């Protein structure tokens, strides 16, 4: 059992949701209420990571963030640290890969808020900001929670992109899924079995927890709105 | 960099996994210094190092890959051969494949239509795969065996396929086949070296190498390290 790899994966998951969820709340709300030209293209772009193979994303990131790329060399000059084969690169990569998992549930949650509730808030003289904090956020909470759990578990299992971009360096880019891959290649099926089981149990509990929590929260809203 | 924090990342061909793990352990005991080793296919490591991977030392399965890095200006010096790699024909314990040096068993099984899967490392970017292809070409099997071939991403994955029972066998590295975990599940026989170019496994320090990486580089040429390489079936290094 490679605890270092598990810790690293959890750390990666934490960073990803920490940055991605707030962004997704802003962007998800904008998409839910916004009416603009090319909206379906923006939505398609957001969904792309769902259907693209991780190797394709990994390849673009390797070339796009690598030391020879514009972004990569700029970051290296400013921060003295390259992005690829480094933890920071993995955070950026997993944020990009997880955009659909974060955006979808949050956007749907905003869309499901009845227009008359927002109208009522406006009639009461609430500012947009107060409406957002006091009315909208409590209502989209189940969507945010779903996004949180989906992202967190998905990062924990992310493989292809990490393999392309990470280089399997212990303590830096060797995540739990890479550790499983490595131990299978070293014929260590016991270690691979234990680590896979941990991930499986985690995934099932996370999903069960979200379902039950969002059911309970959703129930509250129904009672409140009655 | 402070020596306590100097834990260099090292890229190593997956064929030397078991030997190098032992050597790294011994190195830590003897010197108190640590290294972090990533295993994979040599070709991929060259690509990664060219894209800025922070590896300080690269142990290739073949000299061609260290040369590529050297020519592209990523190395310090031209490196040293640390071991000579050898090939084996391997088959899982329940396999119908008869093991022999001329691969007659493979031919017979292929002719009878009972060979459904045979594995080698990907010859496009894994040196052991490239040599396995040479062996199959030398023994006039290459054309006929094509539909049955399963490529491992590197020789370790090929070895894992070769013992898994989902293939009837494969050509893999002796250094992996001689590991206890492999021997518990599969049998193997060495392939005579006349059928393939020797695998001169070469290592090279990259431009990023620090003190610990350099110390490990020297350690790999020591008698202690060379004895471990030999224990795993490697031939002696040197230029």
Describe the structure.
The complex is a heterodimer of chains A (226) and B (239). By secondary structure, chain A is mainly α. Chain A contains 10 helices and no strands. In chain A, helix 1 runs antiparallel to helix 7 (128-157) and helix 9 (176-185) runs antiparallel to helix 10. Chain A is globular, with a radius of gyration of 20 Å. With 239 residues, chain B is α/β, with parallel strands linked by helices. Chain B has 2 domains: 4-84 and 199-236, Periplasmic binding protein-like II (D-Maltodextrin-Binding Protein, domain 2), CATH 3.40.190.10; 87-190, D-Maltodextrin-Binding Protein, domain 2. Chain B has helices at residues 17-31, 42-50, 63-71, 104-111, 127-138, 142-145, 155-163, 174-177, 180-183, 211-219, 223-231, and strands spanning 9-13, 36-40, 57-59, 75-85, 87-92, 118-121, 149-152, 169-173, 186-190, 199-206, 235-236. A 6-stranded mixed β-sheet of chain B has the order 2-1-3-10-4-11. Chain B starts with 8 loop residues before the first strand and ends with a strand. The interface between A and B is medium-sized, with 24 and 26 residues.
Q: Report Rg of chain A.
A: 20 Å
Strand content of chain B: 15-25%
Quaternary structure annotation? heterodimer
Major beta sheet summary of chain A: none
General shape of chain B: elongated
- Which H/E pattern describes the elements of chain B? EHEHEHEEHEHHEHEHHEEHHE
- How many discrete domains of chain A? 1
So, the CATH homologous superfamily of the largest domain in chain B? Periplasmic binding protein-like II
Mean pLDDT of chain B: 93
Under CATH, the topology of chain A is which? MetI-like fold
Q: What structural category arises from helix and sheet content of chain A?
A: mainly alpha
Helical residue percent band of chain B: 25-40%
CATH architecture type of the largest domain in chain B? 3-Layer(aba) Sandwich
Q: Can you tell me the CATH superfamily of chain A?
A: MetI-like
Q: What would you report as the Rg of chain B, rounded to the nearest angstrom?
A: 18 Å
Q: Uncertain regions of chain A: pLDDT < 50 for 5+ in a row?
A: none
Subunit structure (chain B): The complex is composed of two ATP-binding proteins (ModC), two transmembrane proteins (ModB) and a solute-binding protein (ModA).
Organism (chain B): Shewanella maritima
Protein name (chain B): Molybdate ABC transporter substrate-binding protein
Family (chain B): Belongs to the bacterial solute-binding protein ModA family.
């Amino acid at each position: 059992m490679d605890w270092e790899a598990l810790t690293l994966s959890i750390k990666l998951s934490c960073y990803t949701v920490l940055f991605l969820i707030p962004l997704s709340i802003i962007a998800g709300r904008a998409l839910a209420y916004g009416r603009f030209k090319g909206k379906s293209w923006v939505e398609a772009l957001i969904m792309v990571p769902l259907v693209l193979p991780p190797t394709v994303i990994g390849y673009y990131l390797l070339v796009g963030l690598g030391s020879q790329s514009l972004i990569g060399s700029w970051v290296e000059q400013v921060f003295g640290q390259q992005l690829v084969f480094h933890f920071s690169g993995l955070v950026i990569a997993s944020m990009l890969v997880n955009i659909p998992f974060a955006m979808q549930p949050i956007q749907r949650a905003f869309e499901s808020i009845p227009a008359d509730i927002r109208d009522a808030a406006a009639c009461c003289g609430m500012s947009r900001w107060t409406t957002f904090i006091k009315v909208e956020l409590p209502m989209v909470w189940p969507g945010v929670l779903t996004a949180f759990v989906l992202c967190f578990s998905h990062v924990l299992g992310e493989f292809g992109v990490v393999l392309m971009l990470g280089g399997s360096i212990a303590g830096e880019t060797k995540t739990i899924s890479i550790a499983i891959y490595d131990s299978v290649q070293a014929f260590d099926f016991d270690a691979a079995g234990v680590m896979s089981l941990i991930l499986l149990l985690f995934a099932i509990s996370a999903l069960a927890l979200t379902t039950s929590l969002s059911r309970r929260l959703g129930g509250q809203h129904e009672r409140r709105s009655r | 960099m402070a020596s306590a924090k100097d834990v260099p990342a090292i890229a190593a061909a997956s064929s030397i996994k078991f030997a190098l793990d032992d050597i790294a352990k011994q190195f830590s005991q003897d010197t108190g210094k640590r290294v972090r080793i990533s295993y994979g296919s040599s070709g991929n490591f060259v690509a990664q190092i060219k894209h800025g991977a922070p590896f300080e030392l690269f142990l290739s399965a073949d000299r061609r890959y260290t040369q590529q890095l050297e020519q592209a200006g990523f190395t310090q010096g031209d490196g040293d051969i640390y071991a000579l790699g050898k090939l084996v024909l391997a088959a899982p314990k329940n396999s119908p494949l008869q093991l022999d040096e001329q691969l007659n068993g493979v031919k017979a099984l292929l002719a009878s239509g009972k060979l459904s899967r045979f594995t080698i490392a990907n010859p496009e970017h894994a040196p052991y795969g490239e040599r396995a292809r040479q062996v199959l070409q030398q023994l006039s099997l290459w054309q006929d065996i094509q539909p049955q071939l399963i490529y491992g991403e590197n020789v370790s994955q090929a070895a894992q396929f070769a013992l898994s029972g989902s293939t009837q066998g494969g050509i893999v590295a002796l250094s992996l086949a001689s590991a206890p975990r492999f021997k518990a599940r599969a049998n193997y026989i060495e392939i005579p070296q006349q059928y393939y170019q020797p695998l001169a496994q070469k290592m090279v320090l990259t431009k990023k190498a620090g003190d610990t990486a350099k110390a490990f580089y020297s350690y790999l040429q020591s008698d202690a390290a060379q004895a471990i390489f030999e224990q795993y079936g490697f031939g002696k290094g040197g230029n």
